[in-house]
Amino acid sequence: MYDYIKGAVTRVTPEYVTVEQGGIGWLIYTPNPYVFHSSEETQQVFIHQHIREDAHFLFGFKSIEQRELFRKLISVSGIGPKGALAILASGQPSHVIDAIEREDEAFLTKFPGVGKKTARQMILDLKGKLKDLYEGFGDAPERILPEQQERAELEEAMLALGALGYSEREINKVKPQLAEMDLDTEGYMKQGLQLLLKKK
């Protein structure tokens, strides 16, 4: 079982990052790959190893709290790793914990693949068991880029939202609003997720 990997992030895609450590490039799926930046500097990624009969996957997180919430989510019947990543990608895990504690099914069903039955199961399984994680989460401010920044970051964010399970129709509804903002890819991801959650 892995706890974390330290290495240089050599590749960032809409679904995963590659961390080079010891001459090996580790492919690691993350909620929002763009919180990591390609750099020769050593970065720490907290790891969850997911083993299936036909494949082994590594999921990576910026903090231990984020990883532990991921593990709690995939313990719920009806939530797989991809669904848990989509929930965590909102960038506001504290809101998810609040919704579970308040039994707010309407909020939880806004995430891709979470219907009323799964939302109810999340509440039944996790209510009262997440408070120890709450203080580990904080909402970071968005990083504004110069007006001249090209929109490649916006397109990357749109691809990442699609990888999380949002439909092209849903993404196209929020894209015009995002196009008016000057953010980096991580910022577009967070703003896009917030808009998607409001529109459902």
UniProtKB/TrEMBL annotation:
Organism expressing this protein natively: Planococcus lenghuensis
Name under which the protein is recorded: Holliday junction branch migration complex subunit RuvA
SUPFAM superfamilies named among the record's database cross-references: DNA helicase RuvA subunit, C-terminal domain, Nucleic acid-binding proteins, RuvA domain 2-like
Keyword hit for DNA damage: yes
Recorded family membership: Belongs to the RuvA family.
Domain notes: Has three domains with a flexible linker between the domains II and III and assumes an 'L' shape. Domain III is highly mobile and contacts RuvB.
Subunit text: Homotetramer. Forms an RuvA(8)-RuvB(12)-Holliday junction (HJ) complex. HJ DNA is sandwiched between 2 RuvA tetramers; dsDNA enters through RuvA and exits via RuvB. An RuvB hexamer assembles on each DNA strand where it exits the tetramer. Each RuvB hexamer is contacted by two RuvA subunits (via domain III) on 2 adjacent RuvB subunits; this complex drives branch migration. In the full resolvosome a probable DNA-RuvA(4)-RuvB(12)-RuvC(2) complex forms which resolves the HJ.
Stored Gene3D superfamilies: 5' to 3' exonuclease, C-terminal subdomain, Nucleic acid-binding proteins
Record domain Helix-hairpin-helix DNA-binding motif class: where: 71-90, 106-125
Biological role stated in the UniProt entry: The RuvA-RuvB-RuvC complex processes Holliday junction (HJ) DNA during genetic recombination and DNA repair, while the RuvA-RuvB complex plays an important role in the rescue of blocked DNA replication forks via replication fork reversal (RFR). RuvA specifically binds to HJ cruciform DNA, conferring on it an open structure. The RuvB hexamer acts as an ATP-dependent pump, pulling dsDNA into and through the RuvAB complex. HJ branch migration allows RuvC to scan DNA until it finds its consensus sequence, where it cleaves and resolves the cruciform DNA.
Principal localisation: cytoplasm
Pfam families in alphabetical order: HHH_5 (PF14520), RuvA_C (PF07499), RuvA_N (PF01330)
GO cellular component terms given for this protein: cytoplasm; Holliday junction helicase complex; Holliday junction resolvase complex
GO BP terms in the entry: DNA recombination; DNA repair
Location relative to the cell: Cytoplasm
Record-linked InterPro entries: DNA_helicase_Holl-junc_RuvA_I, Hlx-hairpin-Hlx_DNA-bd_motif, NA-bd_OB-fold, RuvA, RuvA_2-like, RuvA_C, RuvA_C_sf
GO MF, one example: four-way junction DNA binding
CDD domains according to UniProt: UBA_RuvA_C
Keyword DNA repair: yes
Region (Domain III): 149-200
